[in-house]
Amino acid sequence: MTASREVSVVPKLPADVSVTIHVEVPESTPDTDCVYAGIPLPKIGNLLYGGTFQIPRNIAFQFRISRGFGLDEKDAHGRDVPYRSFRPEEGLNLAYRVESWSNKRKIGTNHFEEAD
């Protein structure tokens, strides 16, 4: 008695994939601000932040675009923007556009200050 089985060999996938993130910000964004999308994004142009990052393959990421703690992205009507998410199985190019920012920074429990 004999047995056989067909087997396919696939190349080993690298642990990380390249993810390029570009975030376009509104003109009201102060030039000195940092922008974050779960990680700090360097300024790469006028009103544009981003770069290419090595991200672990098939790990889910969820984040809000912000200018720092409490200075989150808002929609054109000043409402919260839902968390953004991605799970890279292959390389990705992600592009986001921020319509407006929160103008109040939380500085303690139920205390806020106006942001620049």
Total helices: the number is 0
Structure classification: mainly beta
Mean of residue pLDDT? 87
Largest sheet: 4 strands, mixed
How large a portion of the residues is in β-strands, by DSSP E? over 45%
Low-confidence stretches: none
Q: State the helical fraction.
A: under 10%
Oligomer: single chain
Can you tag this structure with a few keywords?
116 residues; mainly beta; four-stranded mixed beta sheet; three-stranded antiparallel beta sheet
Can you walk through the features of this model?
The chain has 116 residues and is mainly β. It is 0% helix and 46% strand. The protein contains no helices and 13 strands. Strands 4-5-1-10 form a 4-stranded mixed beta sheet, with no helix packed on it. It has a 3-stranded antiparallel beta sheet with strand order 3-2-7, with no helix packed on it. A hairpin with a 2-residue loop joins strand 4 (43-45) and strand 5. The radius of gyration is 20 Å and the shape is elongated.
SSE map:
Elements: E1 16-24, E2 35-37, E3 40-41, E4 43-45, E5 48-56, E6 61-63, E7 65-66, E8 73-74, E9 84-86, E10 92-97, E11 100-101, E12 104-108, E13 111-114
Parallel strand pairs: 1-10
Antiparallel strand pairs: 1-5, 2-3, 2-7, 4-5, 6-9, 8-11, 12-13
Describe this structure in a few short sentences.
The protein is mainly β. Helix content is 0%, strand content 46%.
